[in-house]
Predict the 3D structure of the following.
Amino acid sequence: MIYADIIVDISHEKLDRSFQYRVPKELEAEIQLGMVVTIPFGNGNHERKGYVTGLSDKPAFDISKMKELHGICSSEETTEERLIALAAWMKNRYGSTMVQALKTVLPVREKVKAKEKRYIVLNMDAAAAEQLAAELESGRCKARARLVRALLKEKKLDYTKASRELGMTASVIRPLVDQGAVLVTQDEVYRMPVDGSDIPREQLSMLTETQEAALLQIQEEWKQETPRPVLIHGVTGSGKTQIYMKLIQQTVNEGKQVIVLIPEIALTYQTVRRFYGWFGDKVSVLNSRLSQGERYDQFKRAKRGEIQIMVGPRSALFTPFSRLGLIIIDEEHEQTYKSENSPRYHARETAEYRAQMENARLVMGSATPSLEAYTKAKDGEYRLVKLEARYEDRPLPEVTVVDLREELKNGNRSILSRSLKTAVERRLERGEQSVLFLNRRGYAGFVSCRSCGEALKCPHCDVALTEHNNGKLVCHYCGYEQPRVEKCPMCGSPYIGGFKAGTQQIEQVLRKTFPKARVLRMDYDTTRTKGSYEKILSSFAEHKADILVGTQMIVKGHDFPDVTLVGAIAADLSLNAADYRCAERTFQLLTQAVGRSGRGRKAGEAIIQSYHPDHYSIQAAAKQDYEAFYQEEMAYRMLMDYPPAAHMLSVLASGEDEKLLEQGMDYLAKFVERISGKYRVHVIGPAYASVGKVNDIYRKVLYLKHKDERVLQDIKNKTEKYIEVNSGFRKLYIQFDYT
Ligand SMILES: Nc1ncnc2c1ncn2[C@@H]1O[C@H](COP(=O)(O)OP(=O)(O)OP(=O)(O)O)[C@@H](O)[C@H]1O
Ligand SMILES: [Zn+2]
Ligand SMILES: [Zn+2]
């Protein structure tokens, strides 16, 4: 017997009520997630339509009371059905309610009215219009004459633009309308995120031989019976973007549609412009600054087949294309592809599922692939395609690692080492540009020694301890605590504490050290107002400044040909995050940062200042040696059972009542221990989450590790049920997260 969970009407608020129905024997083979079915509903058993959101071989309640569904509506799949099936998969995979999953996947139908746009058009032939214009001119109706002349040139004028640029008021236009010379029309227009109509069209560049070879490998994979996802591992500046463009073009020529995921931070005007230049009005762009209405319009256009390419961050993955042919994920390793709201999905994994469901291809690319993706490529689950040289064989930058402990010993207490200072001076003399960054955001709280460079770590988890308000040092994985120390336990030095300098201080130091230099700062504070981010980037691109200083946001994905020096002020900051992935993040960030230097015709240089110059993530980044980093890091993950060596599920709970939260988490931990006993699941915690308290809401977390993902899935499902039936958890908000 098969039982189907069915949601009756997804346009209503109470979306998450699903009802279970028996599936008739003859439909068992056919029924699938997301299908539209007819069911008897309510007391009157009126026939209604519903969506299948779950299938199971176990009844949720007494089957003598369960109704049987009538039939499957259409076997012809619609785009919406497929997206609902995707939502159902996400609900099961990541643990969330069906409403949350549906709201993530379907464009929310808000009460947004399509915006109307007014146009002025000529209502007479050219000769008559010429005559009219002449008459108006001699009759001193200058404004009206101007309008007619403008219409003679352009046929159709935007009403708002005309009134602004030609200084037309309604009193000018009105008489012309009354005499029937012009018409004012209204079209439904879409709210456009970027006006692409003025951007000149461009030809795609010719691929180089190496790029062509990579393209061929991808096409070869696509000829296979079941093509695998492709991972392009290409060094910075090797031309991955050029390859994506060819693949997009090819797919569009086949009559299919393309989704391109790009990290939000790289979705600059420059990037968008390039897409419009190549593909014109076939493209649309999403970003988080769009209003609900604008988003809705873009999805509507996609659904109607008016555009073929959607470019955007994570959420663009749910574009309702009906003939999806290709999904591209650029900078595959970026953290932002993982959602921090329930369902806490990962775009890579979800894209893989959607592509598989819709017979579309998936291509990912990065200079520093995530350990997850690279491991899959090594195991043959993904096809690995390599690009090992930069375009035109431009050399990778020369990298120097500066030991900050030595600087301190030599009496230099400044945040600029002597080498970095000299390097910046040289750039100023030559009229070249420098980028200096501090990878600081989100890494506060750790405690390290300025003499030996060591950070205090948890003896059980090998991640940095975090200093709490109560003065204690705590581990966010297992809850281990110790009192604060006055002296470094490794070398005895009293110079132990947190790193205090920020981008603002660095800016001040730069202004003082190089009084003639033009310095631009880009960080959270300077980019809060609308458009400021773009403004800083474009003024730096136009060489209106010599030095750009900021947080890691300045070294992600940009292409400034005049930059020949990149400096990491304190590379260790990200190494001390209380997170098992911190070495990976540090390596990725430094490699990407180094890769911003020397992209144009002039050779580049990079300087990495660090208290841990020998750390493998820093050494490997300096050599741009991904493979070496991968080997070391995988060994660590295997030793500690961290992903991708094992799977890790976290159970996050929050609540106002700290006692209740503690009790609830202890119950959960016990429950998990009990049901997972025979599988030997590694349970860690409960501990306070990395931000233990936000707005008076307390947060705790429990980690489960196991080699087999299905075991964790099973535990998650059972835990979800346990939480549902125990009223003690009602005042807690509990989420699951695969980290
Ligand atoms: N075939 C080509 N023809 C012309 N220019 C090219 C070609 N390939 C690459 N380039 C140029 O080289 C630079 C780097 O290329 P691109 O941005 O595609 O590299 P990437 O691999 O995506 O780099 P990153 O990972 O660092 O972002 C760009 O300025 C690009 O215009
Ligand atoms: Zn020390
Ligand atoms: Zn620990």
